[in-house]
Amino acid sequence: MDDLKNLELFDGSLPVEKITNKWYADFRLSNFGAIITFVGVVRDEDGIDGLSFDIYEPILNSWFESWQEKAKAKGAIVLMSHSKGDVLNHTSSYIAGVCSPKRRVALELIDEFVEDFKASAPIWKYDIIKGKREYALDRSTAIKGAGILF
After folding, report:
1. What is the DSSP letter of 143?
2. Alpha carbon distance 132, 124 (integer Å)
3. What is the pTM of this model?
4. pLDDT value at position 5?
5. CA-to-CA separations, 100 to 34, 70, 78, 146, in angstroms, rounded
6. Count of the separate structural domains present in the chain
7. Are strands 77-88 and 7-11 parallel, antiparallel or unpaired?
8. CATH code of the domain covering residue 42
9. CB-side neighbour CA atoms (13 Å) of 84
10. Which residues form the domain of 94?
11. Do residues 134 and 50 make contact, with C-beta atoms less than 8 angstroms apart?
């Protein structure tokens, strides 16, 4: 299986039900005992209208492939969908999933995967305020070995 088929990028808000239902349909007959999803929803806070995202896909693909290898060593797979561009409040920009023969492996992997995503994925977040993008510096995490250019 091509690991990158398990990584999808969408313009704008994610179609949550379509994605999670597809994952269930694709993997329910694969003898996984657990299919776990995490859905991130943009919160209405600090006067923002939503968030906007830029993604550097070559590094994201490499990061995701390394996670597939970690998961494969435990008999599992990871799944991910993320938004590019603008995502308004109360809609989803991020969905992660883990399929595993055992629930404990899936529970542990989903936690590790989501936390590492927040710390390491090459995705830059902007607040949307009155129709304009403003870099969300106070809520961003620098990628190891990288800097931010202004």
Report:
1. P
2. 15
3. 0.89
4. 85
5. 5, 12, 9, 33
6. 1
7. parallel
8. 3.90.1170.40
9. 11
10. 3-101+115-136
11. no
